[in-house]
Amino acid sequence: MTRYHIKITGQSKEAMADLIRKYKINIFNHGISYSKETGYSIDAMAVLDDIQLLEKNGYIVVILENLDESGKASQKEVGKGNRYTQQPQPQQKQRSLSSPFTPISPSASEISSVALDNAISYLNVEEVEAALSVATSAPYTAITKLISLPESTWEGRQCNAIKIANGNDFERPGVYFLGGVHAREWGSSDILVYFVEQIEKAYLENTDLTLGAKNFSASDIQTIVNTLDIIVFPQANPDGRNYSMTSTDAMWRKNRRIRSPNSSSGDCVGVDINRNYDFVWDFPTCFNPSAPVHTSTDPCDHEVYHGSSAFSEPETRNTKWIFDKFKNIGFFIDIHSHGKDILYSWGDDDDQTTNPNMNFQNPSYNGQRGIIDSSGLPGASAYKEYIPSSDLDVAIELGNTMRDSIKAVRGTSYTVKSADDLYPTSGASDDYAYSRHFKDVINNKIFAYTIEWGTKFQPLYPEMKKIIQEITAALISFCLWICNNPQRISFIGEN
Asked: How do the domains of the chain map onto residue ranges?
């Protein structure tokens, strides 16, 4: 059946929560908009039967686009071949050094300029991996290292990450950027490749970096690379991303795990990687039965099946391996789309700073989580997730820093908020990252975020390039804040 991108409007937050709890609608954003005239609205995906049922029950539904048709159009904007292995044309050698991705010498880095300087299409799966190879080749070898991750995907692909750092001091703060988790969110991988290439080029050339109207000085870039360990894993789910880019289902979200010989196609394939981490993964036990949890135990759920166990998937185990390997990581961002949101922990319930005993590890609260206080229901505040007030202050301040940097590029407004704004989640990467030090005091405290970029999963590439600049600016400002606030991160490794 044809799927549509729709906007759903209801008169109350309770009605909006019912979209997940009662109607099992696939919601796109973490947050909802509100208007006195129309009520609460949110973007979602649905087939005509869903739309008719919602309209019958009092919702206003506006069809925004035919996702199957737009998906086919988007696939035409995926790169063909591998631009990172093609030799540059003579005229491409004459570009100004001030333009993005232009090489500093006719070397391996020159190939990267062919791929992304003046790019008109999304990087395909092979190009993302090739970009990491180029980024860790001469002339960048003194500040970069290719990290081969231990787990192959279900389709046998090798995943790689990259470390950027001038120095090897274990006491340096570690920053971890993850992308490409949800298959249809193509631009997340492009953002992180762009970030890597801009940072390393500006560092070696000792030049300023300008992104739209936002400028970072040469000194800023030097400080980042000389102070931090930056680990970038741009393509966590290459199987799913490749399927989204090449199959009839551009809106595919999960990985490509096949659970039985009879399920090589259709809905009964795949796990939602961002529901597979070990944070209240067993949501039927942990959450209130009426909580609108956007997660599923159904292996045939097309969107949010959480897997057979926490970390059942090689993709999530690769993500975890990086946390375990680089124990100085204290900051983490998982890059997704869409909604123009910057989300901080927690995502399972509202935050509270006064009762440390009320936390995700306490089984006496099982069956109470996930009823968001803003719903106004009786007993809605029975459970809230504990976060130390100092952590909450830092989380909001860092989120605002990224928000302001995004706006400086071309005026786009993002919203900073806790990740549970409309619906609670379980098994998400950001909550898992932040929860690690609560579970084991040996682990560093990790301030964790999800950025939801843009308003479409696969915007036309001219618009995607602008979004890439915005989110790159946010990531650089994020790094700079860490460098410039050593006194604020002295508590890393403490509870």
From this structure: 4-75, 90-495
User: In 340-414, where do the E strands start and end?
Assistant: 341-344, 351-352, 385-386
Element (H, E) at 473: helix 461-484
Q: Measure the CA dihedral 71/74/76/81, to 10°.
A: -110
Q: Label the pairing between strands 144-148 and 160-164.
A: antiparallel
Q: What distance in Å separates the CA atoms of residue 76 and residue 484, rounded to the nearest whole number?
A: 43
- Judging by DSSP bridges, how do beta strands 214-216 and 351-352 pair with one another? unpaired
Q: Do the two domains 4-75 and 90-495 of this chain adopt the same fold?
A: no
* Cβ neighbour number for residue 62 with a 10 Å cutoff: 13
Tens of pLDDT, residue by residue, the chain (495 residues): 899 999 999 988 889 989 999 999 999 877 778 888 888 999 999 999 999 999 999 999 999 999 999 999 999 999 999 999 876 554 443 332 222 333 333 344 455 544 555 678 999 999 999 999 999 999 999 999 999 999 999 999 999 999 999 988 778 999 999 999 999 999 999 999 999 999 999 999 999 999 999 999 999 999 999 999 999 999 999 999 999 999 999 999 999 998 755 544 556 899 999 999 999 999 999 999 999 998 999 999 999 999 999 999 999 999 999 999 999 999 999 999 999 999 999 999 999 999 999 999 999 999 999 987 654 444 556 899 999 999 999 999 999 999 999 999 999 999 999 998 778 999 999 999 999 999 999 999 999 999 999 999 999 999 999 999 999 999 999 999 999 998 777 544 443
- Give the integer Cα–Cα distance in Å for 479 and 228: 8
Report the candidate in 412, 365, 406 with the shortest Cα–Cα distance to residue 385: 365
Q: Which 3 state secondary structure label does DSSP give 78?
A: strand
* Side-by-side strand order, sheet with 144-148: 144-148, 160-164, 229-233, 174-178, 329-336, 447-452, 341-344, 415-418
CATH of domain 4-75: 3.30.70
Q: Has domain 90-495 been given CATH number 1.10.10.10?
A: no
Rounded Cα distance, 481 and 463, in Å = 27
Q: Where does 411-460 have alpha helices with state H? A: 429-439
> Burial, 276: exposed, middle or buried (Cβ in 10 Å; 0-12, 13-18, 19+)?
buried
What sections of 30-166 are H helices per DSSP? Answer: 48-56, 67-75, 108-116, 125-135
Tokens found for residue 156: 């046998």
CB 71 within 8 A of CB 35: no
Name every residue whose Cβ is closer than 8 Å to that of residue 43 and which is 6 or more positions away in sequence. Answer: 5, 6, 7, 8, 27, 28, 29, 64, 338, 339, 455
- Give burial (CB, 10 Å; 0-12/13-18/19+) of 354: exposed
